[in-house]
Amino acid sequence: MNGFKQLIFNLTYDKVPVGSCTDKLIPRGTELFCVPRSEIRAKTEKIDDTRTFLQSMANSVSVQFGVSISLVNPIVGAAGAALGGAASGGGTKNPTPDNGSGGAGSGIAGIGSSLLNLGRIGFSFGHSSQSTFVLNSINNQASTLFHTYAEVSFVELSLFEQTAHLSEEFRTVIQEMPCCDGTDAETVNYIKDYIIGYFGYTFLTKMVLGGVAQQTIVISNDNLRSMQSSGDSSSTQAQLSFSTIFNFGYQNMNNESTTKLNDFLSKVTTAYSSITGGSVLDPNKKLNDWFLTVPSNPAIIKYTLKPIFALLNKNNFPRDRDIETKSELILNVTRTLLFNSKVTCDNDCNKQNGKCEPIGVLQFNKCTCKSEFEGPDCGGAKTVPTTSTTAAPAPVVTSSTTALPVAVDYVS
């Protein structure tokens, strides 16, 4: 994880959670709820377009903006998700090679053995390598991803921002902000450099801590279609691969099942697996044994974000007569940064061979090639298929009737 921002809140770790599943201290202005233990099952998500990718991410991330900045365009980039504290190995459920999101602010964390060490999280989609990996696989490499995961939730920690104390650094930067000409270069640069640059523009209000084991498999759509035409369920094979790697619900397979799994794995382009939270995974033990270690070292697996301009109000800045205008200015600059970013593509679509266009999701762009070119960067000449005429064989007449085979498409 990288790109952590400065603290927005000054949190004091001296609150003992009442009737809780932990005796560790939590910050003032927060509430901790224990998540009841339930049966753990592995789930597989098939990600083959931007819609299914956004659905997958929404399972882990809730964005409460309350303004017209949505997930279906350049979204929460370089987020300052700041609840305060020090670092702990963290991450989130994420169908990408790097399970910590980039560009972030600090999250809740304990300092010292007497405190509940809850990790910290980052969140950045616009230019992150993680989202680029997924969208590039889908759009440019004609591939599908299968994201299989099993997770356990331990506690849910919520921040009540109305009672939390803003950090002195954040308060000073807001108080010193020039106001109130939104077109003035000094004001715009101040917001970019000292507010968004230092603190990002979101903060965490809720997080679920636990552990997750996950595997992401990338397979070309051509290979996927050949598997489906033969009646094999790719999602089932992806989940079986997860079970064998993590020793989770694994049972000895017969020869036919083993052959199908090996055939599936032979068609896989790329595969990644990881764990987040808990102790180091012992390959000689079952995954359920690893889940028992999660309470001693939980990581963030789900979280909720809010924009920092929601904090700029009379309650937090009672003496600042321009505070509402400052909030609006920060919102406007944020919108400009998100929606006016430069559109770029690999090799600039080889200049005259195509045009670089945004796909409307997560600041990702794609080459639209001219009719005579093809490829992710329009660098290849399109192959024109040749046609030939072959005489049809004479029909064979037999005295018996045989049922014709019926082709069946199996959708995984």
TrEMBL record:
PROSITE patterns: EGF_1, EGF_3, MACPF_2. This is EGF-like domain-containing protein. It comes from the Eukaryota. It comes from Didymodactylos carnosus. It is found in: Secreted. Residues 341-379 form the EGF-like domain. It holds the Pfam family MACPF. Keywords: Cytolysis, Disulfide bond, EGF-like domain, Secreted. Its main location: secreted. Disulfide bonds join C369-C378. Residues 1-344 form the MACPF domain. One of its GO terms (cellular component) is extracellular region. GO terms for biological process: killing of cells of another organism.
